[in-house]
Amino acid sequence: MDKLRTAIRLILGTSLGNREIGRQLETAYNTIRRYRQIINDRQLDQDTMQAMEDPALRTLFNKRVGKSAGNRLPDWAYIHRELQRKGVTRTLLWLEYSEEDPETAYGLSRFNELYVAWAGKQALSMRQQHEPGERGWADFSGTTMAWVDPATGELHDAEIFVSAVGVSGLLFAFAVPSQRQEHWIHAHAEWYEALGGVPKITVSDNLKSAVLKPGRDPILNPAYKDMADHYGTVILPARSRHPKDKPKAEGSVLVFLRWGIARLRNRVFHSLAELNAAITECVGIINNRVMRRYQQSRRERFETIDKPALLPLPPRYEYGEWVGPQRVPPDYHVAVLGHFYSVPYRLVQQEVHARCTVTTVELFCGRGRVASHVRSERVGEKTTERAHMPEHHLAWADHTPERYLQWALGVGSQALTVTERMLSDARHPAGALNACANLQKLSRTYGRERFLAACGKALEIQSPTVKSIRSILQNRLERHSDGNPVRQHMPSHGNVRGPSYYQNEDTNHVG
Predict the structure, then answer these.
(1) Are residues 225 and 153 in the same domain?
(2) What is the pTM of this model?
């Protein structure tokens, strides 16, 4: 009774329509309409009905005329609509129905019998039940629409992607330049964005952009499958020549042909965006039109039944072109659109596929991604990831001036100065690089502290060479602090004349 009294208050005390009141109270639209008719016919007011006892009020509003045994028929269209919502059962709906007026309600078993009989008399298409938000159907309409380039006057034909979703059959349409896979996938992304979610299953037609090989075990287009994996939907291609596999798509195409394409047939469009704006407007009208069978629009049914059951919408999918397969050559670089990209060297002689977006090249072996590179337009050149290289290649890759300067900077200022002098003064770059490699060996052999001191001493005596630094370290002269050049002491021997011998002018030096 609380629901009945609330309905009466809303009818008399607000400007809400029958549909809005029914939606708020989860009561059939026809029931609210009948309540309003009784109030108007009998010119009842709020005070009068507030003073009435519950049995009298129930009899006034729920008494059915002309029905045998005094039982009132439920609103079967409402019952059928509510059964399509997740978790709603016939028993629950019977309880709600009987609570309105237990004296005139059918029992549960008779209620079920009457519902089955009513449902069996409906259109055959009604018998194909679907779970809320479970399935979506996608297809091209088979009819193109034209737009004119205002600059050239050239006429362009656009393909019309049409789809429907779930129990509601919410319609979506979108114009694309062609049926190629990038446009087919782009239309799906627009569809999912418009829904604000993703159906668990997407039933597609068998065009090449979707299915490479139809049949019992269909082979999906890799790009289409990649898109489906991104959104979490499962692609189920419809069987060829079985239109009942995708009835919502077929029905949506027919509806859009009548109320979209036909309505826009005499308009001239000057861009694809302008055409899509007009299509969106027509689709909005179709989705908001009340259907007589359900006394609700597609949009209303979608918002209450399908949308809560959709999968969450992930970030928008970025289309990528697939290249391959190809075997990894011995240099572990594969050619993708003219440029060479590295993969881990362990994959040599294995097959890989490449997925190319506007900004990225991804490489896959089997189902796993093995490499990702920034896309390069430099034909014939290489992009190499250090982690992909074997150890002996890494050593060679490090044999560059930049690597040695970076190493020297990390060791200390004296090492950096010596390295810069070696690289700038050398006649041949290869010789300078070898000298830098020898410097690294000295650093590892004698330790950072002694090596830096030796570099400082070599700079002090103006001899920043590998030979000098090695000699300084071998003779432990890096701590020698005076500014004189390092002198080698001659050994003492009877046949060796000392410096005093030549300082005595009176000595006859001729033997």
Answers:
(1) yes
(2) 0.48
Q: What letter represents residue 176's amino acid?
A: V
The answer on 291 and 157 residing in a single domain is: yes
| 8 A C-beta contact, residue 176 and residue 183 | yes
Residue 351 carries which DSSP code? E
Tell me: do 266 and 301 sit in the same domain.
Answer: yes
pLDDT 10s digits, 108-167: 888 988 888 888 776 544 445 567 888 888 888 888 889 998 888 889 999 999 989 888
210 and 192 fall within a common domain: yes
Q: Compute the distance between CA of residue 197 and CA of residue 441 in angstroms, rounded to an integer.
A: 61
- Burial grade of 436 (CB within 10 A; 0-12, 13-18, 19 or more): buried
Residues 153 and 115 both lie in one domain? no
Same domain for 120 and 173, yes or no, is no
**Contact at 8 Å (CB) between 351 and 324?**
yes
Contacts 24+ apart (CB under 8 A), 82-87: 82/26, 84/129, 84/130, 84/132, 84/167, 84/305, 85/132, 85/304, 85/305, 86/131, 86/132, 86/308, 86/309
Helices (H), 289-412: 298-301, 391-397, 401-411
Domain match, 151 and 211 both: yes
Domain that holds residue 414: 398-474
Cβ atoms of 161 and 140 within 8 Å: the answer is: yes
As for how many domains the chain has, the answer is: 4
